[in-house]
Specification:
The complex is a heterodimer of chains A (about 700) and B (about 600). Chain A is α+β, with helices and mostly antiparallel strands. Helices cover about 40% and strands about 20% of the residues of chain A. In chain A, the strands form three sheets. An eight-stranded mixed beta sheet of chain A has the order 12-14-17-16-15-18-19-13, with no helix packed on it. In chain A, strands 1, 2, 3, 5, 8 and 9 form a six-stranded antiparallel beta sheet that branches. The longest helix of chain A is centred in the first third of the chain and has 37 residues, at about 5-40. Helix content of chain B is about 25%, strand content about 30%. The chains are: A alpha+beta (about 700), B alpha/beta (about 600). Chains A and B meet through helix 13, helix 16 and helix 17 of A and strand 7, strand 12, helix 4, strand 15 and strand 16 of B.
Chain lengths: ~700, ~600
């Protein structure tokens, strides 16, 4: 007697029932998974999932059934049969290894077990769990099967309503328009039940149509004349087109309705990205001392997404005057954040960028959006980091000029203040030092005098500069008086022109432009101011500030008067007046004077075609107006706010010329394209004879 | 003389002749056959009685005693349950729906023929239809008007509008305080909006394009922005007749330059003369300022310098031309002397200038764009100024006395005013720099301003114009006047002739019953289109019309009880029988031998 045989024999019912229970529990789960697979991926996936699930359940059930082995059997028999006397393990032990007493006991137990039929050893599991699972699974499968799919492509077609179906005449019965936006937009494909849509530019449009009965051929006819033939595949007709522009079309089946209704595809154009400077807050930043790096943050937003890598153009301009060096390089910047709103943050190491001298560092971000092909590239605002010139860094003649610059602008009041300070200084400085300081003040006074002297046409030389204080030219570059002599005369002198003599042989110190700047009264005042300044300067040179002060005060007063003078005569430029006929001037002769005509001011004529057609559409019933309007629309597409709507309205009316509502719709659409003429006179009502008599009788 | 008076006269004459005949007969008769005194008296007395009875047979008197009882007439919007008194009878006209326990009759005339004895009519509901308004005469009318209906209760669309011009629509909304009124152009864009105040008055404006007919839409919304009512606003843009405008200026300047440009663009054929001093001037063609030449000018725009420079003779010629119908506009460009006046319009004030802020015409930029249209080559929409960039203008600080205001600024200050003088009108305007509107991209505003002002004073239109009662409704009579022979073409192209009623005299009015809604056209010399509303359009306006007309009827009746006997005559047969008896008696009395003298021969023999 084999040891295993009774075990297999006795445990077999339990194992079978365990497997059966497990299968009962697992099957609904597999079914739900298969249903999900069918709904989301298709039949093949569903079958595959079902097979995999079935195998998994069988494996799990088998492994769970292995629990019903010899040990379980011994325990089960012992528990079930009191007459086994806890000795059932002897039945499965090797008889050779048993003692005689054990053998006896085994025989007894075997006899008892054989005498009575073995009880049902398997403890039945509750079926509540299985029933609940099956109910849930049934509900889930029903939900999966019946859940309406709106956004997923595929699925059933939507019914169309394009005219009443008549027997034998092909008519559109069902339709679906699938829009597959370009991949870069990241938008999911969607299926529409209508044939009108608003789609992202560059989308692929897929029409799936069904006709009853099926025509010989069918096509999509765009209103501008192009056709896209529909290809037949079993019960449906399909066509594909890339939406590169907005268009109106109709579905024409051969032998069907001659002019089915129009459908409209509008396009959402990809917008270029927008760049916003987040930090720094201003586009011009002064570099702080000791700054080694510069952090920049830009935000780029786009309707579909910004490419994650942008290029940052860094231009370094350093040096001064004519000695400015430029260097430019472009570094990539990686973005963080949502593709539609990316943050480009970078830090420029100033040393690494070679920005070591005073000057500007300009950073400019260029981003591109995800459009394929030809992405939009947008250059953002330039941000400038400015390193101010260090005052101590300069040397040489330039630095000296800079330091003397404030003295150049020393005012008359400053001269007075300096002179009074010198007088008030205690203890009184040594005479030579006093003289030196008085001389410095006299220099200021001289500079100021020459500054004002320029307004009087004075030429200055020696030490001072003839350039205006605002001039960028360096000292001494202005031509001196003697340089005039070398200049060639500007025009050949003519006999009798006395001014030309002066130009040729003389030397006018009075600069005409400057001299006419001031009116005679102001000139006199300024002259007095200059005289007083000269007196003041003389006294200062003689180390007598006390004697200089009255003149300085007078000069200040005169200067203030000049400043408050209201009228400044500027030289006229631009207008070329005809020469005055001196022979006729002030003679009172008006013989040749005549009324002159006025130049025409007529505006460019407004194209009245649209207005005329609009007016004619009100009453006329022929299609001539519509043809003219269609021609006008083709020529003036850019001026019409919504050309597609107008084209659709024209087409609708052409299909049904008797439709008064369509006519009103077309006129309304055309109204927005009509230019408004300049308003003229709205005449009042004429009134009747009695009214006229009444008006005539009024005083 | 009416028929009754003629009959009275004839009967009186007949009675007199009868009496004379009796006297003659009595005198000429032999004494033996003379009548006795009582017989003669009876014969004499019976003559007028027979005459009177004959008159009453022909014109039976009213039965004063029988006009009892009240008819309760349920009209449109009548409640379902109407309480009636003891001697009241409830009649439901076709417009009343679902009135319980009422007798349904097709019109009021039928009701009155069926119940002629009633003397009082009580009207329940919104009032009588035009069909029934003539039937009530002679009966006392009681009418308690219901409140104003909710929605549009008055609508006054513009009369004819010139191409490109601005027009105004006024109306009134009932029970919509706090709501909004919107005007939509034919392209369904909002061109004007206005909050509705407690009075419900609505005044909206829009702009038109080229000549033709256009349907604007007026929308009323309640305070929660829910759409309450939509009404069509018909606008007829008349093709402008040729106009001539004369512009004179004492000195060149931007104002006159842009004035001339506006007039040229508006096809007003301007003749311009600008003085440049010293007797010289710039001119298209030297204008002729004689009275005969001015009679052909429609409007004349001068500045004050040109007006003063016309001289006394020139001013007299212009004044005569204005009395003849020409329009005159004088621009005040500088300080005016004391007592300065133009044909009765006086301006007085200081030498200062004052700022002028014009009222914005559009409520927002979209509406402004819709009003301006797509722009032209010369004035593209891209160059037009935004709504809030209208510059502040300048006016001479003068007060214009003696006219009606034409143009006001946002604060209500009168900038231009006009005054009638004879058949023409004269206007003064103190605005000095309307050209700044053009140079700041608001040329449309400048053109509107001058168009409004010039339209206010320009010569009236010439030629006949058909007057049409508005609003007209389908299946309701409307009146067309003054169009000579009237041929009306309906929207389906069917032409019909309307016969002029000779009783309307010189006005030449004809009744017309439109059957379908839409634009109808009156052709002929006074050709013009007119819009017929669908029968169920603007119910509030029609309800108010019914109410007011019924109130007028009720007011007439209660005020002066003029009772027309012709409408409440009693039966004539009793009078006829009476006359027959009297006539028979007369005949018998004349023939009978009774009462003859031969019975008393002694008296006749005397």
């Amino acid at each position: 007697m084999s040891l295993e045989t009774p075990v297999t024999e006795w445990a077999k019912p339990a194992r079978t029932r365990s497997i059966r229970d497990d299968l009962l529990l697992g099957t609904p789960i597999v079914l739900v998974i298969a249903a999900l697979g069918w709904r989301l991926a298709g039949t093949a996936t569903s079958v595959g999932l079902a097979l995999l699930g079935a195998i998994a359940i069988v494996l799990i059930a088998r492994s769970r059934a292995r629990r019903y082995d010899r040990r379980w059997l011994i325990a089960a028999i012992d528990a079930a049969r009191r007459d086994a006397e806890d000795s059932s393990d002897l039945l499965f032990a090797d008889p050779a290894a048993l003692t005689s007493f054990q053998r006896l006991q085994r025989a007894r137990v075997a006899a008892r077990l054989a005498a009575e039929p073995a009880p049902d050893l398997y403890r039945a599991r509750s079926h509540r769990m299985a029933i609940a699972l099956w109910i849930v699974a049934a509900a889930a499968i029903a939900a999966i099967a019946l859940w309406p799919d709106r956004n997923t492509p595929g699925g059933p077609l939507s019914p169309a309503n394009e005219g009443a179906a008549r027997p034998g005449i092909p008519a559109l019965r069902a339709q679906r328009l699938t829009i597959v936006p370009p991949a870069y937009t990241g938008l999911p494909a969607r299926a529409l039940g209508t044939l009108d849509a608003r789609v992202p530019a560059g989308s692929r449009l897929e029409w799936t149509l069904a006709f009853t009965p099926d025509p010989v051929a069918a096509s999509l006819v765009v209103l501008d004349g192009t056709r896209t033939p529909l290809t037949r595949s079993s019960a449906t007709w399909t066509a594909t087109r890339i939406a590169d522009r907005a268009f109106l079309y109709r579905v024409v089946a051969q032998g069907g309705q001659p002019v089915p209704p129009l459908h409209r595809i509008d396009m959402v154009v990809d917008q270029p990205p927008r760049i916003r400077l987040v930090s720094p807050a201003e586009t011009l930043v002064q570099m702080s001392p000791g700054q080694r790096s510069w952090s920049l943050t830009f935000e780029a937003s786009d309707d579909y997404g910004v490419q994650p890598v942008a290029s940052l153009r860094i231009v370094v301009a350093q040096g001064e005057g004519e000695n400015v060096r430029f260097s430019e390089r472009i570094v990539p910047v990686r973005a963080t954040g949502d593709p539609r709103r990316r943050i480009f943050a970078t830090t420029i190491a100033l040393g690494g960028a070679g920005f070591t001298e005073p000057g500007d560092l300009v950073a400019q971000l260029t981003v591109a959006d995800a459009r394929m092909p030809s992405p939009h590239r947008v250059v953002g605002p330039g941000v400038i980091l400015r390193r101010p010139p260090a005052s101590g860094a300069e040397s040489g003649l330039e630095a000296m000029t800079r330091r003397t610059m404030p003295a150049y602008f020393s005012s008359q009041r400053q001269v007075i203040i300096d002179a009074e300070a010198l007088l008030a200084e205690r203890p009184r400085p040594a005479p030579d030092r006093f003289l030196a300081r008085s001389n410095t003040i006299a220099d200021d006074q001289r500079l100021l005098r020459m500054r004002y002297g320029q307004f009087m046409g004075e030429e200055v030389g020696g030490g001072a500069t003839a350039a205006m204080p605002t001039s960028d030219a360096e000292d001494g570059t202005a031509p001196t008086a003697d340089q005039h002599a070398g200049e060639p005369p500007t025009a050949a002198p003519q006999f009798g022109q006395d001014s030309a003599i002066v130009e040729t042989y003389g030397h006018t110190h009075d600069e005409s432009e400057a001299a006419t700047l001031l009116d005679p009264g102001t000139r006199a005042t300024l002259r007095q101011a200059l005289d007083n300044m000269r007196q003041s300067e003389t006294a200062l040179r003689l180390s007598e500030p006390r004697r200089a002060l009255p003149f300085a005060y007078k000069a200040l007063r005169f200067i203030k008067q000049v400043q408050q003078a209201t009228r400044i005569f500027l030289a006229r430029t631009g207008s070329q007046l005809p020469p005055v006929d001196l022979a006729r001037r002030l003679t009172g002769d008006r013989a040749d004077m005549a009324a002159r005509g006025l130049a025409s001011t007529a505006a460019a004529p407004v194209d009245a075609t649209a207005s005329a057609i609009w007016a004619a559409l009100d009453a006329r019933n022929d299609a001539g107006g519509l043809d003219a309007l269609a021609r006008w629309l083709r020529a003036n597409q850019a001026r019409v706010p919504d050309p597609l709507a107008l084209a659709a309205a024209i087409d609708t009316l052409r299909r049904d010329p008797a439709c008064a509502a369509c006519r009103e719709k077309l006129r309304g659409t055309l109204w927005s394209a009509l230019p408004r003429p300049a308003p003229g006179l709205t005449r009042r009502h004429a009134g009747d004879a009695i009214g006229r008599r009444y008006l005539d009788a009024l005083p | 003389m009416t028929l009754a008076q003629s009959v009275t006269a004839i009967l009186t004459l007949a009675v007199l002749l009868g009496w004379i005949r009796l006297f003659l007969w009595q005198r000429r008769a032999p004494a033996s056959s003379r009548a006795r005194r009582w017989r003669l008296a009876a014969l004499l007395a019976l003559q007028p009685i027979a005459g009177g009875l004959l008159y009453c047979t022909l014109f039976p008197p009213a039965m004063a005693g029988k006009t009892t009882g009240t008819l309760v007439i349920a009209t449109a919007k009548a409640p379902r349950l109407i309480a009636t008194g003891a001697d009241e009878r409830l009649i439901a006209l076709p417009e009343a729906s679902g009135v319980a326990g009422a007798e349904r009759l097709p019109d009021l005339g039928t009701a009155l023929r069926r119940y002629p004895e009633v003397g009082v009519l009580r009207i329940v509901g919104s009032g009588l239809e035009p069909r029934d308004r003539q039937e009530t005469a002679g009966r006392m009318l009681r009418f308690e008007p219901t409140g104003e209906p909710r929605g549009l209760i008055a609508l006054r669309p513009p009369a004819s509008v010139a191409a490109g011009a601005r027009f105004a629509v006024t109306g009134r909304a009932g029970a919509l305080g706090g709501g909004t009124a919107e005007l939509l152009d034919p392209a369904s864009r909002i061109v004007d909006t206005q909050p509705i105040g407690p009075s419900g008055e609505i005044a909206l404006s829009g702009t038109v394009r080229a000549a033709g007919t256009a349907l604007f839409t007026l929308r009323l919304r309640d305070p929660s922005r829910t759409l309450v009512e939509e009404a069509a606003v018909p606008v007829w843009i008349a093709a402008s007749p040729r106009s001539r405008v004369l512009i004179l200026a004492g000195a060149p300047g931007p104002e006159v330059k842009y004035l001339r440009r506006w007039a040229t663009d508006a096809a007003l054929a301007p003749q311009v003369r600008v003085g440049v001093g010293g007797g010289a001037s710039l001119a298209d063609t030297p204008p002729d300022l004689s009275i005969a030449a001015l009679a052909k000018i429609d409007a004349m725009i001068l500045d004050d310098r040109a007006w003063d420079g016309l001289g006394a003779g020139g001013r007299q010629a212009v004044a005569a031309a204005v009395r003849g119908g020409m329009g005159l506009i004088v621009r005040i460009t500088g300080p005016v002397p004391r007592g300065w006046q133009v044909l009765g319009l006086t301006a007085r004030g200081t030498a200062d200038v004052a700022p002028v802020t014009l009222r914005a015409s559009a409520p927002n930029d979209e509406a402004l764009a819709a009003r301006r249209g797509p722009g032209t080559q010369d004035a593209p929409a891209s160059m037009a100024g935004a709504r809030d960039t209208v510059p502040v203008l300048t006016r001479q600080a003068v007060t214009i006395v003696g006219g009606t205001p034409v143009l006001r600024d946002i604060g209500g200050t009168v900038v231009a005013a006009s005054r009638a003088s004879g058949r023409g009108k004269v206007a003064l305007i103190s605005l000095q720099d309307s050209f700044a509107l053009v140079t700041s991209g608001h040329g449309d505003l400048q053109a509107e301003l001058w168009s409004d002002l010039a339209s206010n004073v320009a010569r009236r239109q010439t030629g006949p114009v058909a007057q049409i009662e508005t609003p007209a409704f389908a299946s309701q009579r409307t009146t067309i006047c003054g169009a000579g022979s009237i041929v009306v073409t309906d929207p389906q192209g069917v032409a019909g002739r309307a016969l002029v009623d000779p009783a309307t005299g010189a006005a030449g009015c004809a009744g017309y019953w439109p059957t379908i809604a839409g634009w109808h056209r009156v052709s002929g010399t006074a050709a013009r289109p007119f819009y017929v509303y669908p029968a169920d359009a603007v119910p509030g306006v029609r309800a108010i019309d019914r109410r007011d007309a019924t109130l007028r009827l009720a007011g007439d009746d209660s005020g002066a009880r003029v009772r027309n006997a012709a409408d409440s005559r009693g039966p004539s047969w009793p009078w006829f029988i009476g006359w027959l008896i009297v006539a028979g008696l007369l005949w018998w009395l004349e023939r009978a031998r009774i009462g003859r003298t031969d019975m008393q021969p002694s008296r006749h023999s005397r």
